[in-house]
From TrEMBL:
The protein, known as: Delta-aminolevulinic acid dehydratase
Protein species of origin: Williamsia maris
Pathway(s) served: Porphyrin-containing compound metabolism; protoporphyrin-IX biosynthesis; coproporphyrinogen-III from 5-aminolevulinate: step 1/4
InterPro entries: ALAD (IPR001731), ALAD_AS (IPR030656), Aldolase_TIM (IPR013785)
UniProt keyword ATP-binding, yes or no: no
Role, per record: Catalyzes an early step in the biosynthesis of tetrapyrroles. Binds two molecules of 5-aminolevulinate per subunit, each at a distinct site, and catalyzes their condensation to form porphobilinogen.
Length: 327
């Protein structure tokens, strides 16, 4: 007869109470941040076909969604602006216009919510440019790093003046955190923080986001976003962002990059965020719609796994729903 085990890990899995007692990773509403899209020129919210359940908001509807999210206890909101198609141009001039859609939405939410939540803004040009790139192009069509920094600085100042608590530079330009930090400090905005998109990979999983922001991207983002094959590069970007003054560092996407989340979490003492992006949302949603996976369980498992990998904060389109469910 085979020898009977006298060490039995199953003992700690016997009842829900026992499992709860020994659970290492927790998920609380405050850990979740809700990304929202606010579009100009809509009379009512516009469903995003490739992200069932997510919409492009009007200013009125985003006010309601934000109030609901805060009521559910989320840690914050990340705002993306979507100008009307005819208002996009080569330099993304809607981005730093105080009357641009993102800045108007920030002011509306800041006046509704004050400091009761943390308002974050995407500090990037791709939603505002007609070519869909995250920066301005030089004569040869290449994304011009340093000219783009000037645009980010102007955008960051407009966003803070509109009411953002944290700026989220997501364009992967070299020096973006330092340029924004210096400009904020020079303007006296020493309390405005930077949630840096530190390790942002060039990912196929951003697909549905393109529809969400009405982007007509020409080409791809491989000359500025990281190659999915690379791990060490994330640490190099991390060192730079910390040296340039990042307050929170982020890894994106999340689920295919949990090793990077872990690397970053082990390397720093600042809070680490991870972004469960559009394609991750859509994959789970689509499989669940087909009855292939249990939707609610898959959502919780995905978020718990991102936390387990080392993320303090998780951006997820399910933030309000999950926060409400966690009560
Ligand atoms: C760039 C930006 C993107 C996302 C967030 N910020 C798109 C990109 O880099 O291609 C993607 C978010 C998502 O897919 O949910 N402004």
């Amino acid at each position: 007869m085979t020898e009977r085990p006298y060490i039995r890990p199953r003992r700690l899995r016997t009842t829900p109470a026992m499992r709860r007692l020994v659970a290492q990773t927790s998920l609380e509403p405050r850990h979740l941040v809700l990304p929202v899209f606010v579009a100009d020129g809509l009379s009512e919210p516009n469903p995003i076909a490739s992200m069932p359940g997510v919409v492009q908001h009007t200013i009125d509807s985003v006010r309601r969604a934000a109030a609901e999210a805060v009521e559910a206890g989320v840690g914050g909101l990340m705002l993306f602006g979507v100008p009307a198609a005819g208002d996009k141009d080569a330099t993304g001039s809607g981005a730093d216009d105080p009357d641009g859609i993102l800045n108007r939405a920030l002011s509306a939410l800041r006046s509704d919510l004050g400091d009761s939540t943390v308002l974050m803004a995407d500090t990037c040009l791709d939603e505002f440019t007609d070519h869909g790139h995250c920066g301005v192009l030089d004569d040869s069509g290449r994304v011009d790093n340093d000219a783009t920094l000037d645009r980010y600085v102007s955008m960051a100042l407009a966003q803070v003046e509109a009411g953002a608590h944290l700026l989220g530079p997501s364009g992967m330009m070299d020096g973006q955190v330092g340029a924004i930090r210096t400009a904020l400090d020079d303007a006296g905005h020493t309390d405005a923080g930077i949630l840096a998109y530190t390790a942002k990979y060039s990912s196929a999983f951003y697909g549905p986001f393109r529809e969400a922001v009405g982007s007509s991207l020409q080409g791809d983002r491989r000359t500025y976003q990281q190659d999915p094959a690379n791990r060490d590069e994330a640490i190099r970007e991390l060192e730079l962002d910390l040296a340039e003054g990042a307050d929170i560092v982020m890894v994106k996407p999340a689920m295919s990059y949990l090793d990077i989340v872990r690397d970053v979490a082990e390397a720093v003492v600042v809070p680490v965020a991870a972004y469960q992006i559009s394609g991750e949302y859509s994959m789970i949603t689509a499989a669940a719609e087909r009855g292939w996976i249990d939707r609610d369980a898959a959502i919780l498992e995905s978020l718990t796994s991102i936390r387990r990998a080392g993320a303090d904060i998780v951006l997820t389109y399910w933030a309000t729903e999950v926060a409400a469910r966690l009560h």
